[in-house]
Amino acid sequence: MIKNKKILIVGAGGFIGGHLTKKLLENNNSIVAADIKPKEYWFQDFENVKNYYSMDMKEINNCRKVTKNIDYVFNMACNMGGMGFIENNKAECMQSVLINTNLLIACKEDGIKKYFFSSSACAYNKSKQQDVFVEGLKENDAYPADPEDGYGWEKLFSERMCRHFMEDYGIEVRIGRYHNIYGPYGTFDGGREKAPAALCRKVIEAKQNNKKKIEVWGDGKQTRTFLYIDDCIEGTLRLFESNYSEPVNIGSDEQVSINQMIEIIESVTNTKKLERVYQLDKPKGVRGRSSNNDLVKKILNWSFKIKLKEGLKKTYNWISGEMSKQGSNLSRFTKS
Ligand code: GKE
C-alpha cells in the first residue's frame, strides 16, 4: 500500500476522489486536494488535509499551482454523472479533457513520475453493448473506437493522452476503466445520480410518501454491473502500485437487469414490491454492459468482493440517513 508519500488528488471533493483521499490519509500520506467545487460542497471533509484548493482544474495555471514537490498524482476529476447528465451535457463532459491534458503538462514540467487516470466503461465500443446480459467487455473492446458520445470520447482520448505522455516524457501512467461505481457519499439526487443511488432514493421516497410505485427509466430489462466504492478504491490502489500501464477494467461481473436491481433493493430493505412505472423516453445508455475481469485478475491477482446485495443495503441506509437530514449537508449530494 502507498505510504508516506506526497500525493495530489484532483477531484478530491467528489465521490471516488473523496474515498481515495480518506484511504490514502489512513496510510500516512500527505495529501494535496483540489476540486472545482467550493469546499463546503465537497462530499467528505478531511480535517488533516491542510493543502486544499477550490479552483477550476481546466486552467493550466491552476494545475501548475499544485504539482510542485508531489510524488504521485491521481486525476479523479471530470464533469460527469449518470445517463441523465452525460446524455444532455456532452460539450460540458468533453471539456474535462482540459483537466487531464493541462495536469499532464504540469506534471511533465515538475518531473512527476507516476499518474493515475480515472477512465470509464463508457469508453467501450457501443456495438458490443447492444443486448441484455452481454459478454463482459475486454480491454481491447474499446477499439475500433465507438464510445459513448461526449463523455466516452473524452475518456478514450484522455487515455491516449496519458499513454503519449508516458511514451514521450516518461511519466508512468495507470488507467482504470470504472464500471458504474456506487456507494455512500455518492450523488443521489439533482440529475447527476447514477442508477443504484437513484433507485435507492426512489424506493425511500415511495416509502416516505406511502406510494406504491416508482418510476424507472427504460423498460427495466437493460443490464449493468455495478461496483461498490470500497472495491473500486482497493482495485485502483493495487493497479497504481502494479507495473501495468495499459487501461484495465475496475468493475464487477455480477450482471443484473435494472428490474433485478430494484428487487434486490426491495428485498434487503423489506420493502413490499412496488409497481414499476417505465419511462421509455428517459436516457437509457447502452442495452447491456458488464466487465470482463480476466486481465485484472491476472495482473493484480484481485477481483471485486462486495456483491450487490451487501453494497445496495449499505448505500440505501446511507442515503436514507442523508435524506432525513435537512439543509446544506443534504445539498452536497443533490447539487446538480
Ligand atoms: N441514472 C438513472 N436514474 N438511471 C436509471 C434510472 C434512474 O432513475 N432508472 C433506470 N435507469 C437506467 C438507465 O436508463 C440506464 O439504462 C441504467 O439504469 C444505468 O444508468 P446510469 O447508472 O445512469 O448510467 P450508465 O451505467 O448507463 O452509464 C454510466 O456508466 C458509468 C461507467 O460505467 C455513465 O453515466 C457514467 O456514470 C459512467 O461512465
Give a written overview of the molecule.
- The chain has 336 residues and is α/β, with parallel strands linked by helices.
- It has a domain at 6-181 and 227-252 and 292-305: 3-Layer(aba) Sandwich (Rossmann fold), CATH 3.40.50.720.
- It has 12 helices and 13 strands.
- The chain has helices at residues 15-26, 60-66, 83-86, 90-94, 96-109, 151-169, 195-208, 229-241, 258-268, 294-300, 308-323, 328-332, and strands spanning 6-10, 30-35, 51-54, 72-75, 114-120, 172-178, 181-182, 213-217, 223-224, 227-228, 247-250, 256-257, 275-279.
- The chain has a 7-stranded parallel β-sheet with strand order 3-2-1-4-5-6-11, with helices on both faces.
- Strand 5 (114-120), helix 6 and strand 6 form a beta-alpha-beta unit.
- Helix 1 crosses helix 8 (229-241), helix 2 (60-66) crosses helix 5 and helix 5 runs parallel beside helix 6 (151-169).
- The site of guanosine 5'-diphosphate-beta-L-gulose has 26 residues, from helix 3, helix 7 and strand 8.
List keywords for this structure.
single chain; alpha/beta; Rossmann fold; seven-stranded parallel beta sheet; two-stranded parallel ribbon; binds guanosine 5'-diphosphate-beta-L-gulose
Give the helix/strand layout:
Layout lengths: L5 E5 L4 H12 L3 E6 L15 E4 L5 H7 L5 E4 L7 H4 L3 H5 L1 H14 L4 E7 L30 H19 L2 E7 L2 E2 L12 H14 L4 E5 L5 E2 L2 E2 H13 L5 E4 L5 E2 H11 L6 E5 L14 H7 L7 H16 L4 H5 L4
Parallel strand pairs: 1-2, 1-4, 2-3, 4-5, 5-6, 6-11, 7-10, 8-13
Antiparallel strand pairs: 9-12
The protein binds guanosine 5'-diphosphate-beta-L-gulose.
